[in-house]
Amino acid sequence: MATNYPALIVTFAREEGLQRLISIGIKSGIRRFYIAIDGPRTEEHRISQGKMHDHLAKLNKVSDLEFFVWQRTENLGAAAGVLTAVNWFFSRENAGIILEDDLVPSSDFFTFAAKALDFYENNPDVWVISGSRMLPSASDRTYSDWSRYPMIWGWATWGEKWQSMSSLVTTPDQLSVRNFFNARLNFWHTGARRAQAGLVDAWDMPLANAQFKNMKYTVIPPVNLVTNIGYDMEATHTSGADYPLNHPVEILPDNFRLLQNVSFENAHLYDRVLEDQLFQIKFHHAFLGIYGPFLDLLKSRKQCRGSLSKRMRQITLPNGNL
């Protein structure tokens, strides 16, 4: 199925991953690509990125394809690198698909994303369309599921909604007295605070915190459509994972249906399994508001990149064609 939506590919040092994503995207109907390449850290990275540019130069000669490339000179890391890439993407596009170079999507992912982008465009409660299903396939493979967490192994969204998401990701919030001993809220609030302070280089935890607190939803496909192969030295998503994150990619049923109305009950059931098995939110997380700051103080002496909002302000998005 051809799609009119563009794709952003965020990459760093996996030239084979970039080539694979472009090839799958072209076969799936993508004709407009945005490539954000984080700055190299080593000479080996520079060589790898040189191969990326050589490949893109060849593809640029294909008349019906468009490529926009943002090569960063400084290594921004996982959080600022991805966030600024998505900001750049949506400074030019109204909606689109986002992929990172350690992912392998099926062609069905692009079909699912395109249909869901059309279907939920005017639904303010839907923030994210995901291609990854962290739980086994639904018993009824006809219907999509809901989650209050952003599943970002292959995802899509809209520029207007991303503006709200991006602002909340970099803006620290407060945990109310009423929720001070809520294990789930403490887990995400603490993770968001650490990322925003630069103690961990991550952007997904602030997004999960914002999405959960604001009662926004992710559309989950009935079967898994994306796999992650990033278990190498450059891995940012899969290092140290105990829960089996990757489920086999399956064929999206021809008769699958997107649910018109958001279901809190459906999301609650799906998310409780994620919280127990994937995120492993435990009773002791209820006390993170007490012991968390002491752990952060120790960590800040070893690792701190500076606040995420400050790093974001120092990065200027490119103008014009690159």
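Next protein, fold it too.
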Amino acid sequence: MTGFELFEYDENQSYEANYSKWRLMNNDEKMQTGDKELTEKQAIKIFKNLHGKRNTNKPVNIIYWWQRTNWKKDENL
């Protein structure tokens, strides 16, 4: 998978900031390879599986966080 930047979780940043960076990188990779982008629901699930317990002592409700942002809501959530 040459040519793609590897995402590294930054412990100095918030969980949400790391998710945003990972999501942008993932979308860029999908666009470059011609693959379909993940839905927001799929992306949240994958990121939580990879990094769900970082920077927090309690589970992160990223769906709630995502719905509070200015991002377009995925009607399938």
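About the second fold: Residues 70-77 have pLDDT under 50 and may be disordered.
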